[in-house]
Design brief:
Blueprint (H helix, E strand, L loop, with lengths): L1 H18 L5 H20 L4 H22 L6 H22 L2
């Protein structure tokens, strides 16, 4: 009986640990893709160096946001949503600048 209680305790505590992760793979993938899009835009002439610098600043801000949200060891749904919102905003800016 004691063994099963201990096993259940370990199981449920590991579930809590798995749910409280700091991984943000989708945001990281978006960041990598956006960096490539910015470099490609400069290479093809769709973006000026000034526009690219402004977008790089936005990318740095997203990176800072990511670091701050991970600092406490847990990325909540709200924090994750804010990261996605910022990444999507950056993506729209890149699209608009490349296509104006």
């Amino acid at each position: 009986m004691k063994k099963s209680i201990v096993i259940l305790g370990v199981f449920f505590s590991s579930l809590a640990y798995v749910q409280a992760q700091t991984a943000t793979p989708k945001v990281s993938d978006k960041q990598k893709n956006q960096t490539v899009r910015i470099k490609e835009g400069v290479r093809t002439g769709e973006l000026t160096r000034g526009e690219a610098a402004a977008m790089a600043k936005d990318q740095k801000e997203l990176k800072r946001m990511k670091r701050r949200t991970k600092a406490d060891g847990v990325v909540t749904r709200k924090e994750r949503a804010l990261l996605h919102k910022k990444a999507n905003s950056n993506s729209k800016k890149i699209y608009r600048q490349k296509n104006d």
